Amino acid sequence: MYYEHLLSPGSIGGLYLKNRVVMPAMGVNLANTNGEATEVISRYYEERAKGGVGLIITEIARIDEEYGVGTPNQLSVTEGRHIPHLERMISSIQKYGTKVFIQLHHPGRETKSALIGGKQIVAPSEVMCKVTGEMPRALTTEECESLVKKFIKGAVIAKTAGADGVEIHAAHGYLLNQFLSPYTNHRTDKYGGSFHNRIRILSEIITGIKYMCGTHFPVSVRLSADEFVEGGLRLPDSVKIARTLESYGIDALNISSGIYESAITIIEPGSYAQGWKKHLASEIRKNVKIPVIAVNNIKDPETAEALLEEGVCDFIGIARGHLADPYFVHKASTGRSNEIRKCIGCLNCFAELNQGRHIKCTVNGALGREVEFSSLEKNGVGKVAAVIGGGPAGMQASLVLDKKGYQVVLFEEKDHLGGTLNVAYQAPLKDKVKAMNDGLISEIKASSVEVRLGKKASVEDVKALNPSSVFVAVGASPSIPPIPGIDKKHVLKAEDVLLGKVKPVGRVLIIGSGLTGLETAEVLAEKGHPVTVVEMQKEIGPGINRTILIDLMMRFKKFNPALLPNHKLLSISDQGVMLMNQRTSQGIFVEADTIVLALGVSPRREQVAAFRQSFNNVRVIGDANRGGRIQEAIKDGYQEAFAFTSME
């Protein structure tokens, strides 16, 4: 398919863009602690520029060192000393024909005092963010005026460093969004009260940037068109804001949605459909004449093309899609869109940032480590590499080994590749996991990897290849604890339930509330089974990303399931199970017709041991090494194959 609209050139102000794809700003935590652009962050952006994106808007760049820190290692545009480092980063992007905007940012109340040396955080008014849980101090009028100058200074620094434009971040509940919204702006001075006063700070910033940087220097403003909170900005309010900002002379609007308190609408989990909020950008575009950039949870170029054709926006914002696959645009433009490594909406990228670490991606093991993985040596020529197991770890290792020039033979005992991914996408609203799996398989088909399906690889089979290396990715088996009654016929494995191999009857009791357990419970509840979920830990859903858990439980709870956290399984009978309340140590019997076990997995150690004993150069990866998520499987496959081959 040729993407006529997506790949057509466009312009923002007088700036020419080679296509309609924009990589919007995402915090990555890859700069140094002084806010300087490091080689690591430069290589991160350069890889996306090589991949063909038309415009990159950098991560949040702080304009205020005292109160404006958003992450420990974010870019900064507060001092002249930042210019040389920023210039090198920008040049590394522009050499591929990709344009660069620096996003100017202040978090306001959406930060933590720990990031600013223990000082009280600041905001337009004393309105606490329910997510950060810290009461801000209201800025004085003089401080607001000073912040205007800091935003302008940041733009001047960005232009001096060679940026093609800047974006003012007035979305997602950050400081400037806080001024715009009556939900967070209760001021009585010139920066609060009326619509004109609430937008005043943006007016002063835009006017100042245009004066200092020139009218032809592009300025974009990012807006949350709907805050999705009671008392906050709604679409009609944002249409008025957009038209007013256009009158101030900005060159583009970048439309998103939500604030921290409605964060699921900023960074959607995998259950959300592509284009679910297209009405926001569409309505704003009808009311302005300047270009509209919009994010819409885009995972594939087909959807992006359709939104452009429909007239939803002028430029498509593809954010996490570029974390998952930096070559998204290149693959789309060269007829290889089926090989795009798809984002699955797991939110691991932002979970990593919330832990203070640099950004990572479940489906891209090289994200944030582009320098480390910058050169794959072609040192496998004439050598055979055997990979045992065609799940995500095995497929990823095979692809890396193939790029190294190895003759890769991939064994998979089933008649199809994918391993546990084939189980994962059986759960509700997991179409993106299937798309990711299909993409991996397409990558394998496009490579030189020889795939042998439908036969369990024996040591003898592998010895016949005389391999220089063996990667064991045989996965894991569901954990079955030695509990009385565990072998009864009405005791089933969650994996078998999801795959449709077995059919529960009557009242179902799920043991284990990890992601597999809860997804299995949701499947069965949708089919009409009364469901009880038992969990040993103190809370349901231990280890699940908070946003993912909230999203799942919002759907699941409508079936009125019984939830029993802090209960241990003691025994199973024909009529039900005996549990122990771990808080009171009291026993409790729960009646059930079917018991479903979702207690994690155990590596297939016997198979692993057989290969370890028979070969010298063995690497054990994925669940065969330790039970984990897709993230660990992809990471293992990528880095173990890379490290091993580099030592050959």
TrEMBL record:
It comes from the Bacteria. Residues 386-608 form the FAD/NAD(P)-binding domain. InterPro entries: Aldolase_TIM, FAD/NAD-bd_sf, FAD/NAD-binding_dom, NADH:flavin_oxidoreductase, OxRdtase_FMN_N. The keyword Oxidoreductase applies. Residues 6-338 form the NADH:flavin oxidoreductase/NADH oxidase N-terminal domain. Its cofactor is FMN; [4Fe-4S] cluster. GO terms for molecular function: FMN binding; iron-sulfur cluster binding; metal ion binding; oxidoreductase activity. Transmembrane segments: none annotated. Keywords: Flavoprotein, FMN, Iron, Iron-sulfur, Metal-binding, Oxidoreductase. In the N-terminal section; belongs to the NADH:flavin oxidoreductase/NADH oxidase family. This is 2,4-dienoyl-CoA reductase. The lineage of its organism: Bacteria, Bacillati, Bacillota, Clostridia, Eubacteriales.
